[in-house]
Design a protein that fits this description.
With 342 residues, this protein is an alpha/beta fold. The chain is built from six helices and eleven strands. Helix content is 26%, strand content 13%.
């Protein structure tokens, strides 16, 4: 776990936001267990950013061609949001679930722009958790960062366990997460699903924005096509020229979100992109990005959209899911249908 985290820190550059996440880095004192926020009670729906028994941001869809199908879905989606605890003034290592401003930020960004991808495939469950602060991916105090991430993961496990005991009822499920959420999702998949009876309920996993090495799982395999099930997809997105110079992790698995294979150097043109969702939620951009797998990342030609002349970052991490929003949405629906058919 530690080696994987350090590799991610070495290669991670925060990309410019597509939907308004502010960022800042602060160097506090070391991790203090006595200052850890209270653990969440997952029987309380306020501790879920999205849940089928409440109205929330995950119920929305980009206009006009998508439908929220949670009410009739036979599949569940366990979604883990990325880091939204980014305030430079915040000295804590982990988020408090009582932080209403942070909760509102999470709901209006990642739940709206990412979790909604999956409401056509299944009921969306997205726990709030004591996420690690953004600095955990930059700090030299790796011991504190590891403790903060371990605490966040403990919440994710507790939320998944509560979901299984009280709401799953044997239903098939998708695990999806981005960045910090993708990191927690891959450990959740390995620790609680792989080689257990739950593996038979796994439709697929979308472990996006975090490197998954080819030796990480004991049994589970990357998806080998658009309707494969019981497998996982994973990718990180770089600007094409930057990737050709900087990509180097050939032992990292990468899925092309336009053709859903892991084949390297297979170029898929932007005409296959069903639509991206950027800052304006109800204004999709069809054909915005192409995709090609190369040394553990997806290469994407710089997208053109209003204001893109000012978009100069080369690591498109924050847009890993949004650049391919409708392709992921349709793929999750296709995998759910394939699982139910068989």
């Amino acid at each position: 776990m530690t080696c994987l985290l350090r590799s991610f820190r070495a290669g991670f550059v925060l990309a410019v936001t597509f939907f308004g996440l502010a960022c800042g880095i602060h160097r506090p004192s070391g991790f203090d267990p006595s200052g850890v926020p209270l653990a969440p009670d997952y029987s309380d729906l306020t501790n879920w950013a999205a849940h089928p028994d409440k109205a929330d941001a995950a119920d929305r869809t980009p206009c006009p061609d998508a439908t929220d199908r949670q009410a009739e879905a036979q599949v569940d989606v366990f979604f883990l949001h990325p880091t939204t605890l980014t305030r430079n003034s915040d000295r804590s290592w982990n988020a408090a679930l009582s932080d209403q401003a942070l909760n509102a930020k999470t709901d209006s960004t990642t739940i709206l722009y990412q979790a909604t991808i999956f409401n056509g495939a299944g009921r969306v469950f997205a726990p709030r958790y004591r996420q690690a602060h953004l600095r955990s991916f930059y700090t030299r105090d790796t011991a504190s960062a590891d403790l903060a991430l371990d605490l966040a993961y403990a919440d994710v496990r507790a939320a998944f366990d509560y979901y299984l005991k009280h709401w799953n009822n044997g239903r098939p499920f998708i695990i999806a997460g981005h960045s910090q959420g993708g990191r927690h999702g891959m450990f959740l998949l390995r620790d609680l699903v792989e080689t257990t009876p739950l593996e038979d309920q796994l439709v697929a996993a979308y472990l996006v924005g975090w490197p998954v090495r080819d030796t990480f799982f004991r049994k589970l395999q990357p998806c080998d096509g658009p309707d494969a099930t019981g497998c996982f997809c994973t990718w990180r997105t770089y600007e094409r020229d930057f990737a050709l110079k900087k990509a180097y992790e050939e032992d990292v698995i990468c899925t092309n979100p336009l053709n859903w294979t892991t084949q390297e150097r297979v170029y898929v043109p932007r005409t296959e992109n069903r639509g991206a969702v950027l800052r304006t939620f109800c204004a999709p951009f069809p054909g915005l990005c192409d995709a090609e797998v190369y040394k553990g990342v997806v290469m994407c030609t710089k997208p053109k959209f209003p204001g893109s002349v000012f978009f100069i970052r080369k690591n498109y991490h924050i847009g890993d899911m949004n650049l391919y929003y409708f392709n992921i949405r349709e793929n999750a629906m296709a995998r759910a249908a394939a699982f139910l058919k068989h």
